[in-house]
Structure formats: structure tokens, C-alpha cells
Specification:
CATH architecture of the largest domain: 3-Layer(aba) Sandwich
CATH superfamily of the largest domain: HUPs
CATH topology of the largest domain: Rossmann fold
Number of helices: 11
Helix content: 40-55%
Oligomer: single chain
Strand order of the largest sheet: 3-2-1-4
CATH class of the largest domain: Alpha Beta
Structural class: alpha/beta
Largest sheet: 4 strands, parallel
Number of domains: 2
């Protein structure tokens, strides 16, 4: 049995499913499999909770269109949730707890019992309280249950023709703000704008701009750091980031590593 068939088989005993479609390749593959197996009884939903970049929202629209799956959007603001805004080490738990409630509300209105997301095996190797919140609320993770790694997800997504099979991993904009520093609309806007500026100037696709008390710390993959060595380009980027509200700008010489904010707080 192929890996894709194993994933399709997961949906054998499901009448209807609601797929939480984030805009990344993991949930895209789940949405593809659900639609392939269940057709009109598979529905995708993307939550616009005001800390997800417009790039991710556009990606979710694109992939839903490619798959041909019915696609809903739900809107609410995490910035109205004080537990989330205070930004302690349970921020992701509060985020996913609220998302779970919104997904359950929609699934109840549609008469759907099974809600699924794109969590896969490699996600379990990091500190991810948000995953706990989802699972505690009954959200299922087919890729995790079928032992799909990120590499296998990308390979399968490429095989079935999903255009985002090699899309870099992303996370909500609030993840760029260290624990203990409040999440605000102003900070989210300047983070999103600054990452767009750097991508457009350099062509680098995986960019993080950490907002550390107003300091912009730019992180890119270590093998892309040399692209930031051009003095004129670097000066232009630094100048633009200061224009949109950062007090100072630096480049992390160690490159991008998932979970860097945990280290920032400990240093």
C-alpha cells in the first residue's frame, strides 16, 4: 500500500470531515486526501484570527482552489483574548484553544463530527502546547496518526501535484515576539511588512523578523546568509525597517532556527 493510500484509508469510516486548512503543505495534503476520498463531504476552513499573515491566507485560498474542496473562512481576533495577548509560554495553547472552539462551532452548524488538522510526526519534536489544545478538544491529526514526517508530506504532496509541496514552513506572526512581551496590532503589522520587504529585496523565501522590544532581528536559513552581505541591499533593508517602526535592526549570524524565541528569553 502506498503512503497516499494509507492516508486515504484513514478516511474510510468517516462520513464528513472539516479540515483546518492553514495555508501550509501539511494541512493541504490532508485537505487533498479528504476531498479525494469524501468529495463534497469534505470541507476546508481557514481561520483569519489576525495573527496569520496575508501570505498564508492567500496560500490557503490557492490550495483549496487547486484541490476543488469547498472552502470556508472564519474570522475573529486573538488580540481580544487577554490570555493570548499577554504572551506567556502558553500563548500557543490559548491560540489553539480558541481555534478549537471556533472549529467546533462551525462543525456543529454543518453537522460534521470529525475535525482534522495538518499536524505531522516532526511537529512533536518541539515545544508545541497548541497541539495539546487541539487534541484535548477532539481535533484529529491524520498525518500524525499515519506517521507522516515532513519529508514524506512534501514527497506525497509533490506526487499529487500540489503547487505548495516545497513551500517553507511558517507560523503565526505572534511567534516572532518573545514570551513576556505583549502582542499588539502595531507589532504584527511591522513584522509582516518587514518580512515582505526582505523577501522582495533578496528573493529569500523563509524569513523571520523577531520583534524584540522594538529591535528587529532578521533570521534566514544559514545557507542564505551570504545574500545579506551586500552592503547597499542591507542598508536599504535596515532603513526601510526603521521607517516602519523598528528602533534598530540586526541580522542573526546563526541563521534561522525554529523555536529561537525560547532561546532569546533564556539568554
Amino acid at each position: 500500500m502506498t503512503d497516499l493510500n494509507k492516508l486515504l484509508k484513514w478516511f474510510d469510516d468517516k462520513d464528513k470531515v472539516l479540515v483546518s486548512l492553514s495555508g501550509g503543505v501539511d494541512s493541504a495534503l490532508v485537505a487533498y486526501a479528504a476531498n479525494k476520498k469524501l468529495g463534497k463531504n469534505a470541507i476546508a476552513v481557514t481561520a483569519d484570527y489576525k495573527t496569520l499573515s496575508s501570505e498564508e491566507l492567500d496560500s490557503a485560498k490557492l490550495v483549496a482552489s487547486e484541490i476543488g474542496i469547498t472552502h470556508h473562512f472564519i474570522e475573529y481576533s486573538e488580540l481580544e483574548n487577554e490570555n493570548f495577548v499577554q504572551n506567556d509560554n502558553k500563548r500557543c495553547f490559548y491560540c489553539r484553544e480558541e481555534l478549537s472552539k471556533e472549529l467546533i462551532k462551525l462543525s456543529d452548524s454543518l453537522g460534521i463530527e470529525t475535525i482534522v488538522d495538518g499536524t505531522q510526526s516532526d511537529d512533536m519534536g518541539d515545544y508545541r502546547p497548541g497541539i495539546n489544545a487541539l487534541h484535548e478538544n477532539g481535533i484529529r491529526s491524520p498525518l500524525l496518526e499515519m506517521k507522516f514526517t515532513k519529508e514524506l508530506v512534501r514527497k506525497t504532496a509533490k506526487h499529487v501535484g500540489l503547487s505548495i509541496y516545497d513551500k517553507p514552513s511558517n507560523s503565526c506572526l505572534a511567534s516572532r515576539i518573545p514570551w513576556g512581551q505583549r502582542v499588539t496590532a502595531e507589532r504584527l503589522v511591522r513584522i509582516e511588512l518587514s518580512e515582505k520587504i526582505i523577501k522582495q529585496k533578496t528573493g529569500i523565501q523563509q524569513v523571520r523578523v523577531r520583534d524584540i522590544d522594538g529591535l528587529a532581528r532578521i533570521e534566514v536559513q544559514s545557507d542564505k546568509l551570504a545574500l545579506l552581505d551586500d552592503v547597499q541591499m542591507k542598508n536599504e533593508i535596515f532603513s526601510k525597517l526603521k521607517m516602519i517602526g523598528f528602533s534598530d535592526v540586526e541580522i542573526n549570524p546563526n541563521g534561522y532556527v525554529s523555536g529561537n524565541l525560547n532561546v532569546i528569553l533564556e539568554n
